[in-house]
Design a protein that fits this description.
The chain is α/β, with parallel strands linked by helices and about 475 residues long. The protein has 17 helices and 15 strands. It binds ligand TNX.
Length: about 475
Amino acid sequence: MKLYYFLLLFSWGLSAQINVVPQPNEVRYHKGTCAIDTPITYLKDAQIAHPEGYQLLIQPKKIVAKYATEAGKYYAEQTLKQLVFQAKKERKQSLPCLTITDEPRFAYRALMVDPARHYWKIDDLKKYIDVMSQYKFNYLHLHLNDDQGWRIEIKKYPKLTEIGSKRKNFEGSKRNNEGFYTQEQMKELVRYALERNVQLIPEFDIPGHNDAAVAAYPFLSCNDTIIEVRTTAGVSKNLLCVGKESVYTFVDDVISELSEVFPCKYFHIGGDEAPLDKWIENTEVQQLKKKLQTTDDQQLMSYFFKRVNESLVKNGKQPLIWMELEVPTYPANSIMFLWRMRTTPKVLERALKDNFKVICSPGEYAYFDYPQAKDDLPNVGWMPTLSLQRVYEFNPAFTLTTEQEKQHILGVEATIWGESVKDLFRAFYMTYPRALALSEVGWTQMPQRSWQTFVDRLEGQLSYLWHQGVNYRVPVELAN
Ligand code: TNX
């Protein structure tokens, strides 16, 4: 024990630890310091094997950033910016000499926002991207439609936005109940994000969560149901109808238009929380079941996604899906989201058996719409608490042991569901500091991760956010 303290003090005295989030995977400290206005030499270097990898060399008279692609260059800059901020905060004129050799643990590191539940202005999405990209997140998943709103222009179906983007007050609140993005605005946002190494992934959530689309075009539902855009949270039964050819034409049209707007190869098609009641009682669906020679209603979901996937493949896209364990099969090229609480072992077992890749977004670690402490916001009765420490403890490899098994994990994503996230101010509050922990979950190898050093770096990072005008929750429980 004593030796441990001695070593700790000794190493602290030798070189104060740098404060970078996510923690770089290799840091070697050298003697000496380097003035913070020293010019930077940028070197494209084929030796850097990982497309997002970089090397940052800080030497007494020069700073060199080496990278293989623009992504690596951007990340070298983000690391350096944090080092300079830390030095200035500590009122130092110099940086410690060191060599950082860094690359991500996972290829996919994402956040999801939900402008369907509460509309976000484009400028707010830009601000959100600015901040996340500093922490080396490389995908922003946009949940663009839900029962409570349709948010993207589709030229062939103008009522989606004329009708579907407006609703009465949501659970009594008057805030951000209306709005949508034109395709031109979204294309500009795509470019803006790419400059920060963030790819935008559209989500067209089907067949469930579609009250807004059905309100605009009743033919999309099984019984041509007349409804309004939903004004409460919860799960709706007005699914897009699996038994109508006109639905597949609609889906194909929407996918084709969105594929033009979003160049990313990934395309999220939802798949969550689809109660089949209205399918089961519909005569057209019953005929379809006969044709498919099945008595299992969930085979209808498999059939639906098989058809939808034809549109995706045609447009050069690969499906991302909120996996539901009761759905017997999904298209072979799908990437499945692990999201429901208490389903991790079963989803992993199926990933190994059916050989699909997984994005880990489990409720236990990655639902950032949940409060960060007991009695904190949002005060919604059913939500469990998701603390900063718990997010930090997340290891997306779970129980997988061999390298071959671990290959199934593509990465991580936190979801900021929008029912109680009414604006950017609240979204930042829910996201930070938990996204700092998640950035390390996605980027840093396990041996380099430590809750204790994360806590030590937290104050400096919160100050970095503060200087950018970013709202966050102060983790008061760590103050003792
Ligand atoms: C479930 S998670 C949903 C969302 C809600 C969320 C609230 C998922 C794929 N579906 O529609 O916003 O719970 O936590």
